[in-house]
């Protein structure tokens, strides 16, 4: 039976449910090397949650080169797809969290900035129907931090975003879900990376439960 008061749980993909950031480390470092430079840790942190073109442009700017951001983004996408095809592991406790939500009959959506070709590589490794709705970064006109992706997921599920909980790990993702009206629980590996004043509840993924999310939502709705 669906949990009273909770319309749906909306999950980010990279870094939230799946430990794909190390794979992005490889592809981003590869792009930097291809451009004749190195990926600095500061730039790696800045690109978390950003779309491919903005990521490529940030790297170009940091390396001080004038290159085609679209071309670099295409290379990055294909290299990352190759890595994803080899297998993308769940983050600790993430699979159990998704399964517990599904057992309670709560609708689920995957809301990600990643392109469909990457998402399909991940979905191919999961049970069919794990997520009732999937919204990818290249399927919206305004990616995160714009709320369009989360509003689209809620609309496709037929629910009010104010009754949804979103799990995120990045600043753009948190901003997107908050702007859509969701209750946002941030589950980054390093909570300090989000900074202050983001408006999300910060928690370790291992500590998140359906009952806990229900209580947070109930308190928020009054």
What would you say this structure looks like, in words?
This protein is an alpha/beta fold and 222 residues long. The chain folds into 2 domains: 8-19 and 89-221, Rossmann fold, CATH 3.40.50; 21-85, DNA polymerase, domain 1. Helices cover 45% and strands 10% of the residues. The protein has 9 helices and 6 strands, in the order E-H-H-H-H-H-E-H-E-H-E-H-E-E-H. The protein has helices at residues 21-34, 41-46, 52-63, 69-85, 94-103, 116-123, 148-157, 171-180, 210-221; strands at 8-11, 108-111, 133-135, 164-168, 183-186, 201-202. A 6-stranded parallel β-sheet has the order 3-2-1-4-5-6, sandwiched between helices. Helix 6 links the parallel strand 2 and strand 3. The protein is globular and about 55 Å long. The mean pLDDT is 93.
Layout of helices and strands, plus pairs?
Blueprint: E1 8-11, H1 21-34, H2 41-46, H3 52-63, H4 69-85, H5 94-103, E2 108-111, H6 116-123, E3 133-135, H7 148-157, E4 164-168, H8 171-180, E5 183-186, E6 201-202, H9 210-221
Parallel strand pairs: 1-2, 1-4, 2-3, 4-5, 5-6
Helix pairs in contact: 1-4, 3-4, 4-6
């Amino acid at each position: 039976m669906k949990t009273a008061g909770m319309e749906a749980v909306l999950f980010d993909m990279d870094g939230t449910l799946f430990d794909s950031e190390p794979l992005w480390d490889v592809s981003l470092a590869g792009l930097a090397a291809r451009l004749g430079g190195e990926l600095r840790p500061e730039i790696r942190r800045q690109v978390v949650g950003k779309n491919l073109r903005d990521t490529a442009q940030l790297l170009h700017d940091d390396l001080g080169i004038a290159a085609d951001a679209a071309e670099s983004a295409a290379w990055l996408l294909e290299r990352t797809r190759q890595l994803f095809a080899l297998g993308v592991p769940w983050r600790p406790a993430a699979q159990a969290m998704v399964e517990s939500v599904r057992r309670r009959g709560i609708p689920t959506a995957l809301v990600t900035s990643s392109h469909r070709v990457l998402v399909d590589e991940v979905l191919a490794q999961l049970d069919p129907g794990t997520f009732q709705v999937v919204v990818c970064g290249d399927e919206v006109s305004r990616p995160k931090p714009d709320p369009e992706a989360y509003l689209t997921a809620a609309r496709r599920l037929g629910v009010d975003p104010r009754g949804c909980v979103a799990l995120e790990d990045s600043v753009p993702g948190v901003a997107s879900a908050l702007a859509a009206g969701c209750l946002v629980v941030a589950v980054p590996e390093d909570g300090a990376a989000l900074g202050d004043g983001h408006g999300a509840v910060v928690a370790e993924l291992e500590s998140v439960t359906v009952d806990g999310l229900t209580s947070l939502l109930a308190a928020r709705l009054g």
